[in-house]
TrEMBL record:
Residues 14-183 form the Cyclodeaminase/cyclohydrolase domain. This is Cyclodeaminase/cyclohydrolase domain-containing protein. Gene3D superfamilies: Formiminotetrahydrofolate cyclodeaminase monomer, up-and-down helical bundle. The keyword Transmembrane applies. It comes from the Bacteria. InterPro entries: Cyclodeamin/CycHdrlase, Formintransfe-cycloase-like_sf. Pfam families: FTCD_C (PF04961). Keywords: Membrane, Transmembrane, Transmembrane helix. It comes from Inquilinus limosus.
Length: 212
């Protein structure tokens, strides 16, 4: 699903990811952890669709949904890697020389670009997770009763991932000196958070009704 380099996060053993996350290393941080969680949540949804498809004679529509799920897992996986890369770029910009006016200007530009990227990446990641919640909404109706609880668990995980990754937007908004851009990003953050909550609440109600 994803193109992995030698140092890819996705080549790490799970224990390595867990232990590095809990260490004093600055990366991986909240954004990448949120997107790893999102891939796991969506994985539960896709699993439920696959199991249901295996029991359905006419599985064409389910296969289409599964392909969409696989695509979104790849997107979310890429967002996790991008979050680490952009933080590294920001740290590199902080270390740029600032002895002359030219160096100071170059450093300011690099920091501004890194801050913009560090704000846009979690917004894009939250959008992908929101699309994953749309898929979970369809799965909550189509999945067999025996597996629909996993759809509910996946949707709850995706909701948490959206909320978690958007904290990265909050912290980076403070570093933007462009008030107009800052407002656009803040509005996008609010929209994504509200939409994720609404969709996840609807899925939770549907799943609970089906399990009664």
């Amino acid at each position: 699903m994803t193109v992995e380099t030698e140092d890819s996060l996705w080549r790490w053993p799970l224990t390595t990811f867990r232990d590095t996350l809990a260490s004093d290393s600055p990366t991986p941080g909240g954004g990448s952890a949120a997107m790893v969680s999102a891939t796991l949540g969506l994985g539960l949804v896709v699993m439920a669709l696959r199991i249901t498809a295996n029991k359905t004679p006419d599985r064409g529509f389910l296969d289409t949904l599964i392909l969409s799920g696989d695509r979104l897992i790849a997107e979310l996986s890429a967002h996790a890697e991008a979050d680490i890369a952009v933080f590294d770029a920001y740290m590199a910009a902080l270390k740029l020389p600032k002895a002359t006016e030219e160096e100071k200007a170059a450093r300011r530009t690099a920091l501004r670009e890194a801050t913009i990227a560090a704000t846009e990446i979690p917004l894009n990641a939250a959008q992908s997770a929101l699309e994953a919640l749309d898929l979970a909404g369809q799965a909550a109706t189509l999945a067999t009763t025996q597996i629909v609880s996993d759809v509910g668990a996946g949707a709850a995980t995706l909701r948490g991932a959206v909320e978690a990754v958007l904290y990265a937007v909050d912290v980076n908004l403070r570093g933007l000196d462009d008030a107009g851009r800052r407002q656009v990003y803040a509005d996008s953050r609010d929209r994504l958070l509200a939409a994720a909550g609404q969709r996840a609440d609807g899925i939770a109600r549907l799943v609970r009704d089906r399990l009664r």
